Structure formats: C-alpha cells, structure tokens
Amino acid sequence: MPSFRIASLASSGLARSFTTTARRLEIRDVSELPNRIVPNYKNSPTSSLLSLEWPSPPRNVLIVPKLYAPLVISSAVEFAKHIHSEYPNLHLIFEQRIASTIHDSLPFPIYSSDPTHFPTKIDLVATLGGDGTILRAASLFSLHASVPPILSFSMGTLGFLGEWKFEEYKRAWREVYMSGSRVGVSDLQGPHTQAATNGWNDGGNDAVGTREGWATIRGKNMGTTRASKILLRHRLKVGVYDENGANINAHLMPTSTAALTQPLHPVPPEIKELSNTGEPVVPDLHAINELVIHRGPNPHLAIVDVYVGNRFLTEAVADGILISTPTGSTAYSLSAGGTIIHPLTKTMLLTPICARTLSFRHLCLPLNKKVVLKVSKKNRGRELEVSIDGKRRAGVTIGMEIRVTGEVVGQVGDDDTWTGGVPCVIRSSGQGDEGDDDDGWVGGLNERLKFNYPVG
Question: Which positions are tagged coiled coil (predicted)?
Fold first, then answer.
C-alpha cells in the first residue's frame, strides 16, 4: 500500500484495527521479562504462619489451570482479564500448551516458554484446579531451593490443598498482590474508587510511607498493616544414585507433566553450585508430597533395604515404600495406612505399602534424618519404579539407592529472605491476627476427608 494511503487512513482513524490486532494475539517469550522479585516473609508474634511482604509489586505471574477441563480454562481467562485490567504492569505467563489454547481469547499479549526460564522469572503462581494442579506447579521448581508464593483456587476433585473458592478470586488476588504494601484504599464495591494515598508512615526506617509502585492501585481496603499469611510447606530432598554411587538426578524427568516414557530435559539452576573439587553439584529433586519406590507392573513383592541415619533398619518386603512430608500425609500415605500429620510439624513419614508382615508399621522421623532405600539383591534383577509426587521419574535396579532427607527451611542471614519450602497463600479467617491458623486444615479434615464421620 502506498505511504500516502496509510497516512490518509491514519488521519481518518481507520488504521487502528490492523495496527493493534497482531499484538493482541501475540505470545511472547518469558526470557524477555525482568528477573523475579523475591518476597520477604516475616514471623508474627501472634501466629505460627509467616506474613508475606513484597519489596515492590509483583510483575510476572504464572497462571496454571487444570488440564483437560474447559470450565477451568474459561475461569483462567476470566481471572487473567480481571488482573490485567485492574493491576497495571503485570505480565501473565502460561505453560506452552495452555498459552496456545487461550491466547486468542485474551485481548493482550501473554508470555510462555519451556519451563527453563520459570524459576528466575516468576514472582507469583496462581493455580486453578485440585491438588494435582498445585503439585504440577510446584514441580516446575523441583530442582530449586526457592519457590514463588502459590495462590491456589480449589476447582478440582478433592482440593484438600486448595485454599480459595474461585468466586473469591478478586479478594484473594487483592490480598496477595497488596500484601505488605502498607496501602489503605476505599472499597472497590463503591461507585467511585480512589487512588491510594502516600501519607502513611510507621515511624520506622521506611519513612516514605506507601511503597513505590502501589500508589495508583485501586481496590478493596486492606488496611495499612494487613498481610497475607504464608504456610511454608516442607519438601523432601531426593537423590537417586546408580550402583557406582553416582548421582543421576540430572538424567531424570524434571516435571510432573511427563508421560511415563517421555524423556524431558532437566531444568537445573542457571547458576550451578560447585563442590570442593570444582565439579558442578547435581541438584536435589524436591517432593512436596512423597517419594515412592514401588514394584510397578511386576507381580512379585519389592525387597528394599531401609537405612535410617546410616544404620540398617529393616528389610522391607512389600508392594513398596512411601516417604512423605506432612503435606503428603493426607495423600498416598493415608491410603496406605499412614497417620495424618499437621503441615507445620517438622517431620517425615515412612509408610510401607501392603507389607508382607503385620508388624511393619509406619514411622515418624525427624525432618533432618537421612533415609536410604537400597534395592536388595534378592529382587533378582527386577526393576522397581521410583515416583515423586505421583509421577514416575526412574527405574532402579540392584545396587541402586535413593537417599532422602528433609529440606532445610529458614531465613538467609539477618534479613527476611527465606529459602526452602513451598510458600502457600493461606485463606485468612477474616479475624486478622486473632484468627485460627488451623482453620483451613481442620476444616479440610472435617469437610473433605470426613474425619471420624459417623456411620448410620
């Protein structure tokens, strides 16, 4: 088209449609985004949970909806449109297969890539689905010690880990986004909203009052001291070793989205830790629920030597062995007869699966205790399956072993930066710091698991 024709169309206002349409349907690469903002977590004198405090507004948000669920995908589109329209400067990120499905439904660019870039780019994760969707999101960071906060909406089958109903998404997002911002604004339900004020000062070192970046955000009043509550869910650190004692984690499937026979590239940290000899340290795999060693399709029982704290415990003859976190105690371990453990308890649970002897019961062990599961020579060459958080990772044979210990969770230095664990945003009780930390967990036992539910 001649240049004068473009100028003529532009002057008449007709050129707008074809200059913006391509950008609306664009899927951009996550590598273009700014690096991740790491939040702070503060201890509370009145709560056993942590308080979330952003140093600046989160920018890069990963939305993880349940797979093969059209209604959930539609809800993800609704959620994405809302937060993009109400909260400026957000970049919305989706897994590749989700992005290719929904980008035509969104009137703005979205971001996607393979999971390699996620750990260094994602500020916050929002999941829409059940417990499996939360595990899928956490698995994207399974080789990393630092995981972004996870805001979960219960839209799955059981949803024991899901904190929020999707109908509450405006309030839920508001609370986590503004957490620690020190902003109080007028109610979003009113016909006229106002920009947040900048005049508040707590008298401490932060004399600027409202932190930079939140001053123009509109929405429901959070108060000037309210913060989202965070439960740091403990994980297991898992190392798989071959018969020569070499760690083979780097050759295993890295995410819970893998099919049984689908080899995926690992997602290691971009900055590798070096050992005393200068060799790269193979990162641990992390499990938020459990590690399982199982006989798989083999009809014979698995025979596994179990060591605790470098001492031989027992020769396990069973369908398999589970090592679970407190979070995983309400999953596979519960079905195998294991006890229920509160998620704040620093312990891990060793549970046999259909053991040959009735005297082999589950054990609660300190989180820092090392457990080794070694494939016995009595298996006569049979391969056993190793699964993490419900997805197969490897097959192990005679002489191979799995070493498991709890992940160290705590503060780094003297500041409020924490490492380890999976930070999950907990639904507030609406009573401020005076609310019960256990409200959601106890409710889950009663409502979803029907704990001690009367019969008849």
Answer: none
Domains (range + CATH), the chain: 18-180+226-232 (3.40.50.10330), 235-408 (2.60.200.30)
Residue with tokens 């795999």: 285
Residue 236 has, within 13 A of its CA and on its CB side, a CA count of 34
Q: Is 156 helix (H, G, I), strand (E, B) or coil?
A: coil
Task: Quote the CA–CA distance of 60 and 117 in Å, as a whole number.
Answer: 12
Q: What is residue 337's predicted lDDT score, i.e. its pLDDT?
A: 93
Class of residue 380 by CB neighbours under 10 A (exposed 0-12, middle 13-18, buried 19+) = exposed
Pairing of strands 229-233, 347-353: unpaired
Q: How crowded is residue 414: how many other Cβ atoms within 10 Å of its Cβ?
A: 6
Torsion of CA 48, 173, 151, 157, to 10 degrees: 120
Distance CA 375, CA 436 (A): 44
120 and 34 Cβ atoms separated by less than 8 Å = no
* Better-predicted residue by pLDDT, 390 or 92: 92
pLDDT, tens digit (0-9, with 9 covering 90-100), for 163-214: 899 999 999 999 999 998 765 543 333 332 233 333 333 333 333 344 556 6
C-alpha span between 125 and 69 (Å, rounded) = 19
Q: Residue 264: is it exposed, middle or buried by C-beta count within 10 angstroms (0-12/13-18/19+)?
A: middle
Q: What is the largest CA-CA distance in the chain?
A: 89
Residues 141 and 254: their CA atoms lie apart, in Å, by 9
Q: What are phi and psi of 254, to 5 degrees?
A: -90, -20
Closest-CA residue to 286 (of 336, 233, 244)? 233
